[in-house]
């Protein structure tokens, strides 16, 4: 048997430290020996919650299944780990201090007689990784929050390597794949923030990236309001989120976000029911390959991906401004790099309809709105961000770009990877220090790569004027 014991102090309140540390869904963030952790059981974290951990100690790769056997918030959690090579009992004790929380972590590792040789080799490695894990946990809570660097260097605040990679196009596009995600991840600081008592309104959470984001936000304790167009899917999604995370604070409203009357109705309901909204995530979106017009007479791509986003956001600004630090996150797309906004044909009616072009222009418009809101709402304490999720394997992508989906499938991101930056923008402290930027993998990127896509001031003004005019009758 080996016993490891470490004591650390962190500068966060005990309730927060307990919730984050005892939920092994987050262990990958602070324990360098953990490659991945999956919660196997359903419901809230407590006695009986199980996790499967993939571990890597030097050249050794192991799987362990952990189960919580004692759970006394916010002072004690005991987990039992079972693996092929050894079993473990981890006891974590929390106590309040003047400046935060003291964590006493002890782990007892038991090797079977058959594995005595193995014990001799593995023991020093496990001790080393145990110490590293404690340093990781300490740094997770205590790391200094810095404004994302080089804000003044490039127009969008991107760092030099990102600026060059974006401009080199090909490496920039590799960055959209799963490989790009993995490379970027190496540089991330852990994000220990929870969204306890925060209300997040998210659109398009019944599928793909939005669903993965909603699950991750619920795991971080947020109160969620979903806006979905399909009641049955909304009911199923809400149940899935509640079952998987144990977070019961999930409600939903039904609205087709390409219809301004629906948006008006749902915004009114939200304002009536919620005293405050802290985060709005405009994620719903789609690329339509054939032209269509909504019942209200708007071209469908424009209505769904731009006009609706504008109208919903404008409608919710009042209730958002009740939050001490409101955030708006707009899910855009790297597709916008290819297009300039066409303010004289926002509804794609001149010339033959091209779905990809219409989609890219709408997303371009969304990024222009993000920068405009960023500036205008900064004095009120808002942070407004746009982001690109990368190329993500979702039902939406498979339907809208079937050939691209088939060809790129092996390198596409998972929905959780696509949702990562949304969750980070909604919860972490760093993105609370800037506004009006376009993000990919937790770093700001350029918004224009090709000459000719940069809109003029007059075009920006015209865009706002037209969106205001087109929604005026629905207010
Ligand atoms: N996948 C990618 O590679 C990728 C890349 C860049 C950007 N994005 C963006 O990421 C966001 C999510 O896309 P996804 O790939 O996850 O697609 P998805 O799987 O099709 O999910 C889209 C979500 O939006 C909802 N939605 C679409 N139109 C709506 C409407 N009119 N009213 C209300 N809800 C509506 C859908 O509802 P239903 O479930 O009822 O269909 C669904 O929940 C989109 O904004 C997309 O443009 C995706």
What does this structure look like?
With 475 residues, the chain is α/β, with parallel strands linked by helices. Helices cover 39% and strands 21% of the residues. The strands form two sheets. An eight-stranded mixed beta sheet has the order 10-9-8-11-12-13-14-15, sandwiched between helices. Strands 1-7-6-5-4-3-2 form a seven-stranded antiparallel beta sheet. Strand 4 and strand 5 form a beta hairpin. NADP nicotinamide-adenine-dinucleotide phosphate binds next to helix 7 and helix 12.
What order do the helices and strands come in, and which of them pair?
Elements: E1 2-10, H1 14-22, H2 27-30, E2 34-39, E3 50-57, E4 60-72, E5 76-83, E6 86-96, E7 101-111, H3 116-142, H4 160-167, H5 170-174, H6 178-185, E8 199-203, H7 208-219, E9 223-228, H8 231-245, E10 250-254, H9 260-273, E11 279-282, H10 300-320, E12 327-331, H11 355-377, E13 383-387, H12 395-400, H13 402-408, H14 415-427, E14 437-440, E15 443-444, H15 457-471
Parallel strand pairs: 8-9, 8-11, 9-10, 11-12, 12-13, 13-14
Antiparallel strand pairs: 1-7, 2-3, 3-4, 4-5, 5-6, 6-7, 14-15
Helix pairs in contact: 7-8, 7-14, 9-10, 10-11
The protein binds NADP nicotinamide-adenine-dinucleotide phosphate.
What ligands can be seen in this structure? NADP nicotinamide-adenine-dinucleotide phosphate
Continuous helix count: 15
The N- to C-terminal Cα distance equals: 69 Å
| Beta-strand content estimate | 15-25%
Summarize the structure.
The chain has 15 helices and 15 strands.
Features:
475 residues, 8-stranded mixed beta sheet, elongated, 21% strand, binds NADP nicotinamide-adenine-dinucleotide phosphate, Alpha-D-Glucose-1,6-Bisphosphate, Chain A, domain 4, 15 helices, 7-stranded antiparallel beta sheet, Rossmann fold, alpha/beta
């Amino acid at each position: 048997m080996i016993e490891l014991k470490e004591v650390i102090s962190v500068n966060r309140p005990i309730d927060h430290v307990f919730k984050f540390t005892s939920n092994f869904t987050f262990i990958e963030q602070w324990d360098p020996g953990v490659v991945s952790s999956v919660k196997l059981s359903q419901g809230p974290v407590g006695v009986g919650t199980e996790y499967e951990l993939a571990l890597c100690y030097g050249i050794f790769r192991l799987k362990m299944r952990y189960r919580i056997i004692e759970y006394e918030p916010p002072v004690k959690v005991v987990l039992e780990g079972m693996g092929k090579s050894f079993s473990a009992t981890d006891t974590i004790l929390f106590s309040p201090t003047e400046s935060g929380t003291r964590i006493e972590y002890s782990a007892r590792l038991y090797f079977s007689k058959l594995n005595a040789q193995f014990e001799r080799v593995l023991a020093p490695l496990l001790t080393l990784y145990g110490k590293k894990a404690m340093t990781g946990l300490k740094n997770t809570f205590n790391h200094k929050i810095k404004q994302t660097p080089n804000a003044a260097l490039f127009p969008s605040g991107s760092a030099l390597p990102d600026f060059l990679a974006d401009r080199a196009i090909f490496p920039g596009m590799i960055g959209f794949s799963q490989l790009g995600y993995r490379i970027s991840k190496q540089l991330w600081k852990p994000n220990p923030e929870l969204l306890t008592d925060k209300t997040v309104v998210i659109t398009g959470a019944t599928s793909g990236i939005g669903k993965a984001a909603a699950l991750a936000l619920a795991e971080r304790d947020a109160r969620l309001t979903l806006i979905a167009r399909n009641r049955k899917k909304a009911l199923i999604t809400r149940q899935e989120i509640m079952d998987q995370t144990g977070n019961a604070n999930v409600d939903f409203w039904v609205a087709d976000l390409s219809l301004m009357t629906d948006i008006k109705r749902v915004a009114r309901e939200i304002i009536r029911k919620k005293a405050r909204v802290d985060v709005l995530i405009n994620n719903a979106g789609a690329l339509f390959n054939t032209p269509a017009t909504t019942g209200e007479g708007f071209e469908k791509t424009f209505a769904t991906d731009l006009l609706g986003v504008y109208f919903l956001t404008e409608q919710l600004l009042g209730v958002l401004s009740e939050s001490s630090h409101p955030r708006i996150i707009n899910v855009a797309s790297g597709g916008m790099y290819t297009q300039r906004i066409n303010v004289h044909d926002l509804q794609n009616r001149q010339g033959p309809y091209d779905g990809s072009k219409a989609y890219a222009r709408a997303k371009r418009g969304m990024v222009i709105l993000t920068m405009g809101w960023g500036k205008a709402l900064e004095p009120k304490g808002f942070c407004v961000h746009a982001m690109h999720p990368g190329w993500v394997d979702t039902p939406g992508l498979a339907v809208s770009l079937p050939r691209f989906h088939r060809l790129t499938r092996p390198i596409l991101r998972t929905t959780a990877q696509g949702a990562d930056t949304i969750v980070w923008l909604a919860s972490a402290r760093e993105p609370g220090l800037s506004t009006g930027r376009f993000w990919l993998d937790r770093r700001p990127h350029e918004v224009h790569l090709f000459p000719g896509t940069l809109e003029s001031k007059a075009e920006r003004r015209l865009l706002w004027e037209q969106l205001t005019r087109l929604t005026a009758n629905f207010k």
